[in-house]
Amino acid sequence: MKYKHIVWDWNGTLFDDVQVCIDVMNGMLERRGLKELTPERYREIFTFPVEDYYKAAGWDFSREPFAELAVEYITEYLRRAAGCGLRRGAAEVLEKLRERGYVQLIASASEAAALTEQVRRCGIEGFFKAVLGLGDVFAVTKEGLAREYLRAGEIAPEEVVFIGDTAHDWQVARAIGCDCILIEGGHMSRQRLRETGCKILPALDGLLEAV
Question: Which one of 26, 94, 114, 129 is CB 3.0 to 4.6 Å from 36, fit for a cystine?
Answer without folding.
Answer: 26
